Amino acid sequence: MIEARGLTKRYGRTVAVDNLSFTVEPGRVTGFLGPNGAGKSTTMRLVLGLDRPDGGQVLIGGKHYRELRRPLLTVGALLDAKWVHPNRSARSHLWWLARSNGLPARRVDEVLDIVGLAGVANKRAGGFSLGMAQRLGIAGALLGDPQVLMFDEPVNGLDPEGIVWIRRFMQNLAGEGRTVFVSSHLLSEMSQTAEHLVVIGRGRLIAQCTTQEFVERASESAVRVRGRGLERLHAALVEAGRAPRADGGALIVPGVTTDEVGELAARHEVVLHELTAQRGSLEEAFMQLTSDDVEFHAGPVVAAAPAAAGTGR
Amino acid sequence: MTAVTLLAVERIKLFSTRSPWWCIGLAAAIMVGFGALFTALSGGADFPLTVGTTQVGYGFALNVILVMSAIAITTEYRTGTIRATFMAVPNRTVALLAKAGTVGLVSGLVGEVIAFAAYGVGRLIKPNADLALDAAAEWRYVSGVGLIFALSAVIAISVGALVRHTAGAIAILLVWIMLVESLVGIIPRAGDDIQRWLPWVHANHFLTEGNGEAAGEGSGFGLQMPFGPWGALVYFAAFTAAMLGLAIAAVERRDA
After folding, report:
1. By CB neighbour count within 10 A (0-12 exposed, 13-18 middle, 19+ buried), where does A96 fall?
2. Is pTM, for the whole model, over 0.90?
3. What is the ipTM for the molecules in this complex?
């Protein structure tokens, strides 16, 4: 379990993470969603004790990361697949990590097997493709068989096969009762991977809920209807307590079903040419939600925040 | 996590890349090569042959060791492995001490081996010359090279940790040891007073004191040194500890 309370981090005058509180529960994949530069990587660095918070704290299973005596046995993290010496072999890289936390050498071969890198274990990591580097990073995260796993944008730059592999892999880890916290800037990706979401924008919490809730809240469902005699239908819809709006030669009716509109149309003898259910695109809705946040709270501090994009390494 | 474990970790890291091997090989070639060359060509009144003659390569070999040591930490910053290190060992003081300890120990061992190798080759080249280690100062010279290498390596690690940039750290170290320490003496009036307190002047004094002017630069550039050879070593060690302390304080305070 990961618990952040009032987490704040500034870089100079830029506020990268702003009074952020959230909880990541075990047994499910929790997505950490936000546009680039929202402060996802910074938050993960704060969790791992790499950066020091300016305010608040974050605990893993009730402890600060720096208090963990053999941290790899508690938390496994992949923040950046490139954090490997390019001239070191995959096996050497994992071996020094394992050794530092008192893990046996055979564990290195086990995790190389799990991620499918056993065949290139003695090759230099600098020659790895991005997909292989991500797998090596995941192998490092798995070394200590930890209960908490964190991945920062793990599907970035992966081919479809790799994406499916990582998605299933994370779900399996969560299925084993582990805490899995994975960041992404793509809602469509998260909606397929994560059960639960922590959504941030400009370093602040926007939502913390199940993915389904967020998707429903984010994407307005509406019915689009076109035909002869739409004025009558419009009046009928208003009478029925709906709020139709004109869209060119059609009506958009939010929050109704096609059944309901069809019945109404028949009762009022409206000839229909089109009756379709619409669901707003997830990405659009997500952008709308996160940009709302900017519009709502754009104070002087936040106005300086575009530079925060640089912290989203 | 015991100290032994962390030293082993740093040893794996150091020797699983190629640059330390190259640096050690280069340091050995320079130390033995220069010693052999000077020993072979010395002799007579103009170019007296002493134990120090076999060790003339130590300054150049030391530069290579400084580069190796600085790189051992700056590449961690360049590649980001320093973050992997701090994730595996969140106690940064301990992590940095382990690295300084490992690189210092390796450098010390290398220094010891190549100093005696250079001495041995000198004996082979001039079997009839009086190169016996029969004076305390001569013993100190040959067996002291390893000590100076070990302490210098720790200084290089500290500079590397402070600067976090390979080219920057190497430039600072080499300009400092090769230019600043020898050229500060030409400042009018104050030059000597500054120079006699510089760290590697003391290291040099520790090694060469009592070995005659022919041994390298003479006893600390012919300065009136504040301490004897062992005092100079203590001073150099204290300087090393101060640098390491600064580096640890910076690494603990900064974001990785």
Report:
1. buried
2. no
3. 0.85
